[in-house]
Design a protein that fits this description.
The complex is a heterodimer of chains A (113) and B (116). Chain A has 113 residues and is mostly beta strands. Chain A is 0% helix and 57% strand.
C-alpha cells in the first residue's frame, strides 16, 4: 500500500535560517504532491503543489522540490520567521482515486527569535 | 465567500448517542470530503463525494454515514458514538476539474468531538 512519511516530528531552528522539511513516499508514483500548513486549532491551508514533471517550485520564501527517483519532496522556508511556526503536512493523491489525498503525519516547525 | 464552514466547533457525546456534524461550502465545489485527525496518526479520509447524490468510503468509514443531497452540504453522521471516535473532524472541498492547481483542498475550521 502507499505510504507517505515525514521524517521529523519536530524541527527547531533559529530565526533567519532556512528550514528544510522532508517528505518521502513508497509504493507509488504520484502525479503531484502538495504541501499544507496547519496552525493549532485550525484546518490545514494549502501552500504549494508540485507536479511530477516539475523539479522545483517557488512561492515567495517557500520552495518545494520533487525528486521522483528518490521518491522525495523537500520543502524549504528561507529567512524563517517566528510566524512560520506551524505544522507542515505533505500530501499525495491516492492511486486510482478521484483525487483523494493521503497525508503525512506532519512536521511541527518552531522558529525561535 | 465564507469558504468551508463546520458546526459545531466543539461537542461532547456519551457513548451510544448519535449526532450529525455539519459541513457547508459556498464555492460550488463538486468534491467534498471528511477527515479525522488524531495525535500521531495524521489526517485520515472517512468519506468523500464527487457530486450531489454520489458518496464513497475512504480509509476509515466504519461508524460514520454521509449523504450529499446538494452541492453545498455534506453532513457526517455518527450513528452510535464510541470513545474511539474522539477526534478532530475536518471537512474539505475542491473543484473536480479546473485550471491552475486543480487539486488544492479547502479545509473547514474543524469540529473537536469527545465521546465519554
Amino acid at each position: 500500500s502507499q505510504k507517505i512519511e515525514q521524517n521529523s516530528e519536530a524541527l527547531n531552528i533559529q530565526e533567519g535560517k532556512t528550514a528544510t522539511l522532508t517528505c518521502n513516499y513508497t509504493n507509488y508514483s504520484p502525479a503531484y504532491l502538495q504541501w499544507y500548513r496547519q496552525d493549532p486549532g485550525r484546518g490545514p491551508v494549502f501552500l504549494l503543489l508540485i507536479r511530477e514533471n516539475e523539479k522545483e517550485k517557488r512561492k515567495e520564501r517557500l520552495k518545494v522540490t520533487f525528486d521522483t527517483t528518490l521518491k522525495q519532496s523537500l520543502f524549504h522556508i528561507t529567512a524563517s520567521q517566528p510566524a512560520d511556526s506551524a505544522t507542515y503536512l505533505c500530501a499525495l493523491e491516492e492511486g486510482g482515486s478521484q483525487g483523494n489525498l493521503i497525508f503525512g503525519k506532519g512536521t511541527k516547525l518552531s522558529v525561535k527569535p | 465567500n465564507a469558504g468551508v464552514t463546520q458546526t459545531p466547533k466543539f461537542q461532547v457525546l456519551k457513548t451510544g448517542q448519535s449526532m450529525t456534524l455539519q459541513c457547508a461550502q459556498d464555492m460550488n465545489h463538486e468534491y467534498m470530503s471528511w477527515y479525522r485527525q488524531d495525535p500521531g496518526m495524521g489526517l485520515r479520509l472517512i468519506h468523500y463525494s464527487v457530486g450531489a447524490g454520489i458518496t464513497d468510503q475512504g480509509e476509515v468509514p466504519n461508524g460514520y454515514n454521509v449523504s450529499r443531497s446538494t452541492t453545498e452540504d455534506f453532513p457526517l453522521r455518527l450513528l452510535s458514538a464510541a470513545p474511539s471516535q474522539t477526534s478532530v473532524y475536518f471537512c474539505a472541498s475542491r473543484p473536480l476539474f479546473g485550471a491552475g492547481d486543480p487539486y488544492e483542498q479547502y479545509f473547514g475550521p474543524g469540529t473537536r468531538l469527545t465521546v465519554t
